[in-house]
Amino acid sequence: MRVKDKVVVITGAASGIGRATAILFAREGAIIHISDIDEAGLRETRDLIKKGKDNVFARRLDVTKFDDVKKAIDDVYKKHGRIDVLIVNAGVVRVGQIEDFPEEDYDLLINVNLKGTFFTCKAAVPYFKKQKSGTIITLASVAAHIGQNNHANYCSTKAGVLGFTKALALDMAPYNVRVNSVSPGATDTPMLRSDVTKEAKQRGISFEDVKKEFEGQGVMGRWAQAEEIAKGILFLATDDASYMTGADLRLDGGWTAR
Ligand SMILES: NC(=O)c1ccc[n+]([C@@H]2O[C@H](COP(=O)([O-])OP(=O)(O)OC[C@H]3O[C@@H](n4cnc5c(N)ncnc54)[C@H](O)[C@@H]3O)[C@@H](O)[C@H]2O)c1
User: Fold this and answer.
1) What is the pTM of this model?
2) Residue 154 catalytic?
3) Which of 12, 31, 225, 245 is the most exposed place for a label (fewest CB within 10 A)?
C-alpha cells in the first residue's frame, strides 16, 4: 500500500496501460481521478475497479483541449488540496510510409502525444510548484529509443516526450518534484492490436506474422501485459524511486538491449 490515500491523476484510462494502472493504484488504496476521451471505456474501467470504488472519480477529457484539461486538474486540486501523482498516459499511434502519411494523422499524433503531454503538465505544474511535492510520470516508448519501420512520426512524438520529460525534471527538481518516463515495449493493448492490424494490411501479410515480428524484437519472445507496465509506473510513483528523476524506465522485454 505504498500509494495509500495519494491523489493520483491518470489520463487515457479507458483502455490498455492506463486502465491497468488505474486498477493497480486503486487496489493499492490511492484516490484516483481517471479521464479519457472514450466515455464508455472509462465507465468500464470504473466498473472494473471493485475495491476502493468510492475513491475513483471519472470524467471525459480530451487532452488536446487545454481549457478542459485545466478545468479537470483545477477540480482535482480544489477537491483534495493536492495532487500527488500525475500519470500522463493518453496516446495514439498511426503507422505508414512517409510519402503516403496523411497530414491529419500527423496532426493527431502531435496533438495527442506531444501537445497533450504538454497541456496536462502545463495545467498541473503550478500546483506541484506550490505544494513542493509530488511526481509526474509520462509515457514514452521503446519507439523513443530505436527506429521502427512505418513508425517515423510516432517515433518522433515519443522521442519528443522523452526530451520533454528530462527537461521538465530539471525545472521541477528545485520544487522537490520528480519527473520520469516509462518506455514500454510491445504491450498487449487495443493500441498495439490496431497498430499490428494496420501494418499487416499495409504490408499484405497476416496479423499473426506481424505479431511474431513484434514478439521477436524483445529477447523474452512475448508481448508485455499492461499490468507489467502498470507495476513500473507504480514503482516510479512511490518513495522506492526517491532518487530517480529525469530518468526513463524501460519496460521493453529487452528490445533495446540488442
Ligand atoms: N501498447 C504498446 O505497445 C505501447 C508501447 C509503448 C508506449 N505505449 C504508450 O502507452 C500509452 C498507453 O497506450 P495503450 O497501449 O494503453 O493504448 P490504448 O489505445 O489502449 O489506450 C490509450 C488511451 O488513450 C485515449 N486517448 C486517445 N486520444 C485521447 C485524447 N485526445 N484525450 C484523452 N484520451 C485519449 C484512448 O481513448 C485510450 O483509452 C500511450 O501513450 C502509448 O503511446 C504503448
Assistant:
1) 0.97
2) yes
3) 225
